[in-house]
Q: What sequence folds into this?
């Protein structure tokens, strides 16, 4: 197809399509590998005391350039750092998965990223003003191969992976949604009591 392109602009567009589809394929493969490793207990968790603000800022920096002018990323993280007992990379993976989902389903409005103190835990949240999820789908949204919307690209494994990772780190994940009004995904991770080495 590239060799038949008439102009440099046509070539650029074809290359963009190839790159986008390569990224989708890589994402599918990574989901399948992660899911298989988690189910087989082959993933090692580096549980340590990590800063919640540091984690959120890492995700924010990775996503901010992906937002269009129609969707605002609202960063609701307090200035004071809070610490959790978790695997930093896996926590970033969970938030990134939830942010990816929010972006897929939000054409206008906003996506909020932040966290709140909840008893002995921190509760992270990603809230969007997107298409929302039907009550029937919401009941099974964390099950494998279930998608919120059949018309959106994906394997239906992302939320299942998030659930398994969060639970392995001692937390819980949940979702609230209303069709046409948006969704909010929340997950908890335990606060760290050991701050002696910080």
A:
């Amino acid at each position: 197809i590239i060799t038949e392109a008439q102009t440099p602009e046509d070539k650029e567009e074809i290359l963009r399509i190839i790159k986008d589809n390569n990224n989708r394929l890589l994402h599918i493969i990574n989901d399948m590998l992660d899911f298989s490793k988690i189910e087989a207990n082959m993933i090692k968790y580096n549980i340590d005391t990590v800063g919640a603000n540091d984690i959120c800022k890492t995700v924010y920096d990775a996503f901010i350039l992906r937002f269009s002018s129609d969707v605002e990323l609202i960063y609701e993280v307090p200035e004071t750092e809070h610490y959790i007992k978790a695997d930093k990379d896996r926590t970033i993976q969970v938030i990134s998965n939830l942010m990816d989902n929010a972006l897929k389903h939000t054409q206008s409005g906003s996506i909020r990223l932040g966290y709140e103190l909840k008893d002995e835990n921190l509760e992270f949240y990603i809230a969007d003003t997107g298409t929302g999820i039907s009550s029937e789908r919401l009941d099974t949204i964390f099950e494998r191969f279930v998608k919120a919307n059949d018309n959106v690209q994906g394997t239906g494994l992302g939320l299942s992976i998030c659930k398994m990772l969060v639970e392995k780190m001692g937390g819980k994940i949940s979702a609230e949604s209303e069709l046409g009004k948006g969704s909010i995904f929340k997950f908890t991770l335990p606060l760290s009591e050991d701050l002696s080495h910080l």
Q: What stands out?
A: The radius of gyration is 18 Å. The mean pLDDT is 88.
